Amino acid sequence: MNTADASTPTPLNGISYFTPPTGYILSGRDGRVVIPWDGKPPIPLLDEDLASVQDGAPGYDMVGRGIYQALRLDPECAHAAEYAAVLKDAYPHIVSELGGQIIMLDAKDVDTPYLDRKINFLKILALLDPANVGLQAEIGRTFADKGSRLAALHQAVESWYGAEKHLKKAVDMDSTDGHVAYEYGEALYVVGRYDRAAEVWTEALSDLAAGERARLEARIAAILAGKLPLVPPLDYLIALSVALEERHAGRNDEAAAIIEDVLADPFFVEQFPMGEVYYLLGTCYQEMGMVKEAGEAFRRSR
């Protein structure tokens, strides 16, 4: 992003940016918050709050609501780090709520939209605590989780490159955690960077338990021997997303043909859980009147 772009507020749905007059001071919490705003970026406000600003001075609660919503919508928006710093200094109750939201999401199995919410919450926490390796690793894991779900495969490219980006950050911050390095190597493998995955995994071996080390050594050996999927796994995931679209459109024969092509690659099938995919294939066969084939696909989905 160039300097001009970085200085321009990011358009966000329901958010208006307000530039307060010179000398404006954000104050609240009975005098415990006193933050001069001169030199800071425009203040994101909820559209409905902007209409009630009086005398060029948005109130403490207005500013907190606006910043929190802006970061929830896009934690990588322009000036995100500056907005997060204001939250950290002036709104401890919002920071506490943010942590509570993540704990709640971690406590149960969630659907894909909740994973998106969790990713954004984690990114905000990472802005508040940029040296926290665990946050970067958890963002990467959540992207990988999303990128592995059948219902979200239409976003597989964004998800797996997001996983690679944040797991790399975690490894760069602390290279001593073999499990994070393994996960980073997995993301590299999925996007087709096999040689780099093997390098990362080789460096991680000494930090893993014996059983984990043996399994990873086998995967490294397969890479070095050229025993690889015919195309990068990410390409197969994209193909499966197309198959899902074909199935929803009622073109079961087209969907089945795509899935059969993917399942024909033993190296891909070996590395990825295919239960959902076999179930999808079974529904296609069922609609096509191929009862025997449907039964076999459903059996393999268990």
Radius of gyration, CA atoms, in whole angstroms? 24 Å
Question: What is the SS-derived class?
Answer: mainly alpha
**How many separate helices?**
16
Widest beta sheet: strand line-up: 1-4
The gross shape turns out to be globular
Mean pLDDT: 92
Provide the CATH architecture of the largest domain: Alpha Horseshoe
Between the first and last Cα atoms, what is the distance in angstroms? Answer: 47 Å
N-to-C order of helices and strands: HEEEEHHHHHHHHHHHHHHH
Q: Segments where pLDDT lies below 50 for 5+ residues?
A: none
Instruction: Tell me the strand percentage band.
Output: 5-15%
Major sheet characteristics: 2 strands, antiparallel
Tell me the number of strands.
4
Describe the structure.
- It is a single chain.
- The chain has 302 residues and is mostly helical.
- The protein folds into three domains: 93 residues, no CATH class; 94 residues, Serine Threonine Protein Phosphatase 5, Tetratricopeptide repeat, CATH 1.25.40.10; 68 residues, Serine Threonine Protein Phosphatase 5, Tetratricopeptide repeat (Alpha Horseshoe).
- The longest helix has 18 residues.
- The radius of gyration is 24 Å and the shape is globular.
